[in-house]
């Protein structure tokens, strides 16, 4: 498909942020986005680079009432050699297709998705920050646009990719997080939408997240919907535990997001001959391990933070400290290796890195 | 709050639908809507009647990514005396406030909500259809509009009320529905969003709903998320069973929508001294009752259909017929009474009907 370019004239472009140490996350957006439309019977049409600006939606657009929506999160960044890189974009494209299937939505063709993304990145190369740890966050989003108030699968969709510079996640080095173990509220149940990257899971997380933030916690650890014992995931990350030297994380059984950083961490552990298992682990097992001095490390994995070490869990009013209160060896090694591969400082034996330009 | 009126000139108004027997549902919208904005620190501002038209949203608007949204469904209609009426609008306003609390959203002030709705109805009185059983469907909707890609509670919102004429639900009389009992997919879990009228629950229902429609069923009956045994609700309705003359429906324990028609049906049964109980009922109990010849009736309750008799349930490949395959006495009596009260044909002992003009 040909991509039409509706570019702003040079004098209409926004100034780039001056301070790359104050970018924050998800507040600054580049001058253009990639977009295309889906119409029942026509398929994907109108691939284009458009100026970033308001989307006009009918007040009855299905996304505004029934949440038919899926998204992705990726990053582009400057490598050591001055080239622009992506990390495992094909994995995000595949996951979005899986999310689409769960939400009864037509997946964007993978070649057009990647081509549109590449074209946008070439157009907005000037928005990719250069300070250490910074990157250009990429948000592919797809929304149901048909105007209808009956609950139905939409006939029409808008797919767009927006980008914006984001700051380093750990400008002052790793800061172990405090996690609240949630027993009352639930993110996703078996048979629900937990494995899809879709609005509903995030809407379900807001109330418990607000409560945890007010009480000084960084994130909420979700337990399974039924017994409230099995560990699922942490807010925007998958969760790993290192117990007796074994790395353990929840299996992909439908209620948790199949994280791409999660997969990268598992792959690297296997590559290093570190025992790693994807199995159900309960909060009781974690508490017992801590009591026995066997809870070496705990960390989250996700696109934004890559690896996020956990300092403590709070469960039923009791604080469960992790390891020695410092970032563990495996957490550090995974962070260094994944970011090293991303930035081209280390070899890329799995072919994870894709050069944009 | 003063409501600003931005009305279209008479020559810009759409023609009204000519055939009131072909209105369908949720496809035709009146010329104007009521809207107001919420800004953190300012509260609700800019109450207005605007021409119906596209809403301009930032591509990063939180509703488009994380589903922070709540809505309601109501109807306005002509009564027997030629007046325009609403049915229990204060109950919808209260439910929307409860939905807002669950989604961390500021509830619209109830007086402004009702005033805005009344002003819109007076403006669009010409859109209320007159054919028997038709009405003006009312959709209050509230969406998170802040532009931010970090998962957060929005600082800004848009609240709007849109209206449109809808057809009679049973133009040819009651048609008992075929219901598919869903064992794999889940609508809502304890600790989830089930009792809020919010996008996430509808997004979760799409896949199973599509599958059921393809196989010829009208609706999906949801079971509880954990044991898949306890009956929750049917798609867009609450579910009632009449067993041995007792009317039973699921209790409001957090996973089902607290239906206003559900409450009206319970109130009327009590008023008539028909035994009615809000308690957990399992699909096994329904099957056993049917086998013993004690399953007299089953029906859904909701704003659109009012009362929707069920002809059969299909569970694990077996069809469970209900009663004698005809609409039961209690289903019929509730339908006649509620619609009779709505249309002003019967006395209104509970003060459910509100005159608009």
Task: Summarize the structure in words.
Chains A, B: Pfam families: Aminotran_4. Chains A, B: One of its GO terms (molecular function) is L-leucine-2-oxoglutarate transaminase activity. Chains A, B: It catalyses: L-isoleucine + 2-oxoglutarate = (S)-3-methyl-2-oxopentanoate + L-glutamate; L-leucine + 2-oxoglutarate = 4-methyl-2-oxopentanoate + L-glutamate; L-valine + 2-oxoglutarate = 3-methyl-2-oxobutanoate + L-glutamate. 2 copies of one chain form a homodimer. Chain A is of the alpha+beta class and 357 residues long. The first copy, chain A, has 2 domains: 4-166, D-amino Acid Aminotransferase, Chain A, domain 1, CATH 3.30.470; 177-342, D-amino Acid Aminotransferase, Chain A, domain 2 (Alpha-Beta Barrel), CATH 3.20.10.10. Helices cover 23% and strands 30% of the residues of chain A. Chain A has 7 helices and 19 strands. In chain A, the strands form 2 sheets. In chain A, strands 1, 2, 3, 5, 6, 7, 8, 9 and 19 form a 9-stranded mixed sheet that branches. In chain A, strands 10, 11, 12, 13, 14, 15, 16, 17 and 18 form a 9-stranded mixed sheet that branches. Chain A is globular, with a radius of gyration of 21 Å. The two termini of chain A are 21 Å apart. Chains A and B meet through strand 4, helix 1, strand 8, strand 9 and helix 4 of A and strand 4, helix 1, strand 8, strand 9 and helix 4 of B.
């Amino acid at each position: 498909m040909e991509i039409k370019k509706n570019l702003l004239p040079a004098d209409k472009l926004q100034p780039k942020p001056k301070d790359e140490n104050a970018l924050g996350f998800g507040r600054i957006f580049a001058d253009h986005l990639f977009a295309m439309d889906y119409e029942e019977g026509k398929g994907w049409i109108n691939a284009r680079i458009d100026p970033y600006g308001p989307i006009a939606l009918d007040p009855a657009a299905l996304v505004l009432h029934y949440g038919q929506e899926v998204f992705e999160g990726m990053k582009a960044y400057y490598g050591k050699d001055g080239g622009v890189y992506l990390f495992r974009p094909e994995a995000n494209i595949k996951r979005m297709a899986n999310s689409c299937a769960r939400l009864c939505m037509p997946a964007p063709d993978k070649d057009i998705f990647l081509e549109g993304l590449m074209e946008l990145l070439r157009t907005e190369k000037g928005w990719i920050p250069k300070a250490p740890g910074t990157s250009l966050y990429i948000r592919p989003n797809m929304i149901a646009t048909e105007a209808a108030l009956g609950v139905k699968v939409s006939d029409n969709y808008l797919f767009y990719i927006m980008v914006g510079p984001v700051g380093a996640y750990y400008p002052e080095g790793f800061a172990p997080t405090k996690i609240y173990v949630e027993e009352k509220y639930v993110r996703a149940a078996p048979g629900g939408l937990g494995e899809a990257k879709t609005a509903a899971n995030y809407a379900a997380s807001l109330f418990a997240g607000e409560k945890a933030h007010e009480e000084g916690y960084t994130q909420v650890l979700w337990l399974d919907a039924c017994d409230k014992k099995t560990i699922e995931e942490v807010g925007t990350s998958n969760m790993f535990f290192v117990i007796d030297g074994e790395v353990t994380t929840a299996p992909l059984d439908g209620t948790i997001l199949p994280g791409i950083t999660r997969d990268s961490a598992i792959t690297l552990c296997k590559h290093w001959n570190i025992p790693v298992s994807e199995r159900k682990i309960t909060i009781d097992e974690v508490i017992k391990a801590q009591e026995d001095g066997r809870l070496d490390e705990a960390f989250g994995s996700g696109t934004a933070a890559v690896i996020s070490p956990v300092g403590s869990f709070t469960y039923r009013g009791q604080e469960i400290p992790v390891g020695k209160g410092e970032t563990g060896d495996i957490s550090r090694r995974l962070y260094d290796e994944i970011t090293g591969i991303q930035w081209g400082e280390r070899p890329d034996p799995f072919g994870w890195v894709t050069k944009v330009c």
